[in-house]
C-alpha cells in the first residue's frame, strides 16, 4: 500500500508538471502520512542529507565551470581543435567533438558545454556548409563527455548516493566509493566516447558530403601548419590546466576533492581576470547567479532524495527490485543490459542529479551482486543519465542545442541514429569491459579499484 502511494503519487506529480525535487518531497510526505511515521523524521533526513562537508565541492565545481563558460575559454579551445582536424572531410564536426570534450573537462557540465560550444560552433558549421541538424547532433552528443570529467559535480552526487553500499564484488569486500577513484575512472570512458563520436561525425559527413555549399560543391580548408596548431594549443592550455590541478592535488594527497575544487575556482578567477582578461564584473555576477541557482537546485534534490532513500530502505525497495530482476534472469550480461535499459528510460524523464540519487540505492546493490563494482557502475549510470539529457521529453542538452541551431527537435531526431549508435557502443564497452573504468584509478592510487 505504502509503496503504491509512493510510486503513483510521484508519477502523478511529475505528470502535473511539478519540478522533480517537489515531486519527490510530496510523494515521500504522503508515504510517511500513510505509514503513520513522524514527519519530523523526514525533515531531519532532508537536513542531514545536505549537511555534508564534501558537498562543498559541488558549488565550487559549478562556479568554476560558470567562470570558464563566461570567461571566453571556449573560443581558444575551438581554435585549437579546428587547427588540428578542421581541414579533413567533416573536419569542423570532428573539431566540434574535440572542443566539446576538452571544454567538458573545464566545465564539468553537459549543459554548460553545449551552451559554450554550441554558441560558437553551431553557427560556424551552418555557415560553412553543414546542415543544422548535423551541427546540433554533433554538439549535443559530444557535450555529454562533461558528465564524466573530473570537474563534474555529478561525481560528487554519485559518491554520496553510493556511500551506504557495501557487499562482496569478485571475492573482495567493498564499502562505498572514493571520489578520487571516480575522478580518474571517467578519463578512459571519455576517450572511448570521444573516439566513437569522432567516427560518427566523420561517417555522417562523408555520407552526406559535408561541408556542402549551396551549389552542391565542397571546399575544404587547408591545414594551417603545425606552427599554428602549437600556438593555438599554447593559448588553450591554461584553460585546460584546471583538470590537471584537480587531479594533481588529489594524486599528491595535497588536498581533498573539496579543497581542490576551491583551488580550481581561484585559478579560474585568476586566469580569466589576469591572464586572458576576458572576465569583467558583469560577467562575474552572471556566473555567480547561475552557479548559485544551480547549486540550490542540486542541494534541494540531494536533501529530498535523502528522504526518498530513507523511505526506500524502510520499505526494503532495493531488495524487492533485486528479486524482481533476478526472477527474470541470473545471467550477469543480460542483467547489466536490463539495468542499462531501465536507467536510460528513467533518464529520459528526470534530471541527471535526480536519476543518480534515486537509481543508485536501487540498482547498485544488485550490480555488485552480479560482479560490477561501484566505480564501474558509477560510470555506467552517469553515461545513461547523460544520454537521457539528449533524449526527449526532458532532453535539456538537446533543447539548448536546438535553440542555438534554430532547428526543431523533430528534425534533429530524424538524423540522430548514427550518434545514438556511437553512444551505445561506448556504453557497451564501459558496461562489459571493467578495465575501462577501473584500470587507471587502480594504477594511480596503487590499490585495486572495482
Can you describe this structure?
With 450 residues, the protein is mostly helical. The protein is built from 22 helices and 2 strands. β1 (166-169) and β2 (172-175) form a beta hairpin. α7 runs parallel beside α19. The chain is globular, with a radius of gyration of 22 Å.
Unreliable parts = none
> SSE order, as H and E?
HHHHHHHHHEEHHHHHHHHHHHHH
**What is the rounded Rg?**
22 Å
**Number of DSSP strand runs:** 2
**Global morphology:** globular
Number of helices: 22
Overall mean confidence score, pLDDT: 85
Determine the fraction of residues in helical runs and give it as a percent range: over 70%
Biggest β-sheet: strands ordered side by side in the sheet:
1-2
How much of the residues is beta strand, in percent?
under 5%
How would a textbook summarize the main sheet? 2 strands, antiparallel
Structural class: mainly alpha
Spatial gap, N to C terminus: 37 Å
Task: Summarize it.
Helices cover 75% and strands 2% of the residues. With 450 residues, it is an all-alpha fold.
Features:
single chain, 450 residues, mainly alpha, two-stranded antiparallel sheet, 22 helices, 2 strands, globular
Write the layout of secondary structure elements.
Layout: H1 2-15, H2 20-35, H3 39-50, H4 57-70, H5 73-85, H6 91-107, H7 110-127, H8 132-142, H9 153-161, E1 166-169, E2 172-175, H10 179-185, H11 187-208, H12 226-251, H13 257-275, H14 281-314, H15 317-328, H16 332-347, H17 352-369, H18 374-388, H19 396-405, H20 409-414, H21 417-432, H22 435-445
Antiparallel strand pairs: 1-2
Helix pairs in contact: 1-2, 2-14, 3-14, 4-7, 4-9, 4-13, 4-14, 5-6, 5-12, 6-7, 6-8, 6-11, 6-12, 7-8, 7-19, 8-11, 8-19, 9-17, 10-22, 11-21, 12-13, 14-17, 15-17, 16-17, 16-18, 17-18, 18-21
Amino acid at each position: 500500500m505504502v509503496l503504491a502511494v509512493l510510486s503513483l503519487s510521484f508519477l502523478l506529480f511529475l505528470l502535473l508538471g511539478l519540478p522533480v525535487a517537489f515531486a519527490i518531497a510530496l510523494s515521500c510526505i504522503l508515504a510517511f502520512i500513510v505509514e503513520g511515521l513522524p514527519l519530523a523524521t523526514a525533515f531531519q533526513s532532508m537536513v542531514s542529507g545536505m549537511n555534508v562537508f564534501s558537498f562543498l565541492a559541488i558549488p565550487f565545481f559549478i562556479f568554476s565551470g560558470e567562470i570558464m563558460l563566461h570567461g571566453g575559454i571556449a573560443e581558444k579551445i575551438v581554435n585549437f581543435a579546428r587547427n588540428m582536424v578542421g581541414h579533413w572531410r567533416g573536419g569542423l564536426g570532428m573539431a566540434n567533438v574535440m572542443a566539446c570534450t576538452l571544454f567538458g573537462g573545464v566545465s564539468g557540465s553537459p549543459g554548460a558545454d553545449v551552451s559554450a560550444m554550441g554558441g560558437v560552433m553551431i553557427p560556424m558549421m551552418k555557415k560553412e556548409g553543414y546542415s543544422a541538424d548535423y551541427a546540433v547532433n554533433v554538439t549535443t552528443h559530444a557535450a555529454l563527455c562533461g558528465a564524466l570529467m573530473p570537474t563534474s559535480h555529478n561525481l560528487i552526487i554519485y559518491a554520496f548516493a553510493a556511500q551506504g553500499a557495501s557487499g562482496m564484488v569478485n571475492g573482495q569486500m567493498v564499502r562505498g566509493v572514493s571520489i578520487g577513484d571516480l575522478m580518474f575512472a571517467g578519463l578512459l570512458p571519455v576517450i572511448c566516447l570521444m573516439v566513437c563520436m569522432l567516427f560518427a561525425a566523420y561517417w555522417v559527413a562523408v555520407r552526406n558530403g559535408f561541408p556542402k555549399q549551396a551549389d552542391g560543391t565542397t571546399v575544404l580548408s587547408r591545414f594551417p601548419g603545425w606552427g599554428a596548431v602549437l600556438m593555438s594549443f599554447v593559448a588553450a592550455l591554461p584553460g585546460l590546466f584546471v583538470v590537471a590541478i584537480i587531479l594533481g592535488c588529489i594524486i599528491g594527497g595535497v588536498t581533498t576533492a573539496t579543497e581542490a575544487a576551491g583551488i580550481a575556482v581561484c585559478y579560474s578567477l585568476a586566469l580569466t581576470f589576469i591572464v586572458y582578461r576576458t572576465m569583467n564584473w558583469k560577467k562575474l555576477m552572471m556566473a555567480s547567479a547561475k552557479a548559485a541557482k544551480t547549486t540550490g537546485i542540486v542541494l534541494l534534490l540531494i536533501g529530498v532524495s535523502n528522504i526518498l532513500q530513507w523511505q526506500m530502505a524502510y520499505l526494503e525497495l532495493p531488495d524487492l527490485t533485486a528479486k524482481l530482476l533476478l526472477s527474470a534472469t541470473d545471467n550477469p550480461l543480460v542483467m547489466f543490459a536490463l539495468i542499462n535499459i531501465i536507467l536510460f528510460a528513467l533518464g529520459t524523464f528526470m534530471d541527471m542529479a535526480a536519476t543518480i540519487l534515486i537509481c543508485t540505492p536501487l540498482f547498485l546493490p544488485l550490480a555488485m551482486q552480479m560482479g560490477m563494482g561501484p566505480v564501474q557502475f558509477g560510470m555506467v549510470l552517469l553515461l545513461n543519465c547523460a544520454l537521457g539529457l539528449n533524449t526527449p521529453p526532458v532532453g535539456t542538452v538537446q533543447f539548448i542545442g536546438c535553440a542555438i541551431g534554430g532547428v526543431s527537435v523533430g528534425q534533429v531526431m530524424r538524423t540522430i541514429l548514427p550518434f545514438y549508435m556511437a553512444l551505445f557502443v561506448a556504453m557497451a564497452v564501459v558496461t562489459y569491459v571493467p578495465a575501462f573504468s577501473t584500470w587507471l584509478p587502480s594504477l594511480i592510487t596503487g590499490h585495486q579499484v572495482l
